[in-house]
Design a protein that fits this description.
Elements: E1 7-8, E2 11-12, E3 18-22, E4 25-29, H1 44-62, E5 72-73, E6 79-82, E7 85-88, H2 89-100, H3 114-118, H4 124-127, E8 133-137, H5 143-150, E9 154-159, H6 162-175, E10 180-183, E11 196-202, H7 210-223, E12 224-234, H8 237-240, H9 247-250, E13 257-258, E14 261-264, E15 268-271, E16 274-275, H10 279-287, E17 292-299, E18 302-308
């Protein structure tokens, strides 16, 4: 069997390595989610079809959308191309954000970033109580992390991009802030049970494959305290994309992935993939693990979904 055609996809299923063969493809399932990697693909389209075929069958066995234990799917299973290079959506997004660095609209030290916090000024302060342990999921440079600290929380931010996190740590040092910042993957959060009372996913859902939100919801049930709150803010892609003529050309019906790119001045063009999320679908996935409290419409196409952890 040609080694060049090996497709590696990481799952944390149990303590064993599971091997499966389809045609010329060897599927190796590791217990370590960080080993999820798809290298040396000679035919990326064929590899993606094979992966999707195998995953559709694997879900019948591991109950990917009806998880009853802490099963971690890596941040992605899809692959994309940047030029002639094949990479995972996880790596492509991380590369994009590290190249972009810190923009004035994401820099907590720049007044131009305040607009993002102001959108929720009538809502977040009502949910965050003094002394709450709060987690900012996909924190970037810490815009919402510091905002939650200002609201009285003991705040922690986690992100997979090193450059924005480095800036966040410098801002924390400058402010003498108690905020903590961790490098990590939302599909394998490095936190113990009952570590937080509040978690926020601020407008980052588009970077998450559908399986990852499922995995994240399972983890939040564990790491949030009883009656802990999870807030997800998002746009509805169906509303956003209405009338967009190029969408069918960029949309993968099997994965929900929308292809795209972003040019960063003096640095080049980077793949910028995005997943097609609707409010109804996000609510459906999370609500299987965390009961829904309310859906608040912030703007015409900006919504805040509030869930409450019930451990009893």
């Amino acid at each position: 069997m040609p080694c060049d055609n090996a497709v590696h996809v990481g799952f944390q299923l149990d303590t064993h390595i599971i091997q499966h063969f389809i045609g010329n493809f060897k599927f190796i399932f590791y217990t370590n989610p960080y080993l999820a990697y798809i290298p040396n693909l000679k035919d990326g389209a064929l590899a993606r079809r094979a992966v999707n075929f195998f995953l559709s069958n694997a879900m019948n066995h591991v109950k990917m959308f009806d998880i009853s234990h802490s099963t971690h799917l890596h941040y992605n299973t899809e692959t994309i191309f940047e030029g002639k290079k094949c990479m995972s959506t996880f790596d492509a997004t991380r590369k994009h954000y590290n190249a972009a660095g810190v923009h004035p609209t994401t820099d907590p030290d720049d007044p131009r970033s305040q607009f993002a916090i102001d959108r929720y000024e009538d809502h977040l302060p009502k949910l965050i109580k003094p002394g709450m342990r709060a987690l900012d999921l996909g924190c970037n440079a810490g815009r919402f992390t510091f905002a939650m600290e200002d609201m009285g929380a003991i705040a922690t931010g986690i992100d997979f991009a090193e450059i924005p996190l480095l800036h966040a740590k410098k801002v924390a040092q400058k402010r003498k802030s108690r905020c903590q910042f961790n490098i990590g993957d939302m599909a394998a959060l490095p936190y113990k049970e009952n570590s937080f009372d509040f978690a926020l996913l601020p407008h980052n859902i588009g970077y998450l494959p559908y399986q990852t939100l499922e995995s994240l919801s399972v983890q939040l049930k564990r790491i949030l305290s009883d009656n802990g709150i999870f807030v997800l803010t998002m746009q509805d892609q169906l509303i956003k994309s209405a009338g967009e003529e190029t969408l069918p050309e960029r949309y993968d019906v099997q994965t929900g992935l929308i292809g795209g790119s972003r040019t960063i001045p003096d640095k080049g063009t980077y793949a910028s993939p995005w997943y097609f999320w609707t409010v109804a679908f996000a609510k459906y996935i999370v609500e299987k693990h965390l009961p829904l409290e309310e859906v608040v419409q912030i703007e015409e196409n900006r919504f805040m979904l509030v869930f409450c952890n019930k451990k009893g």
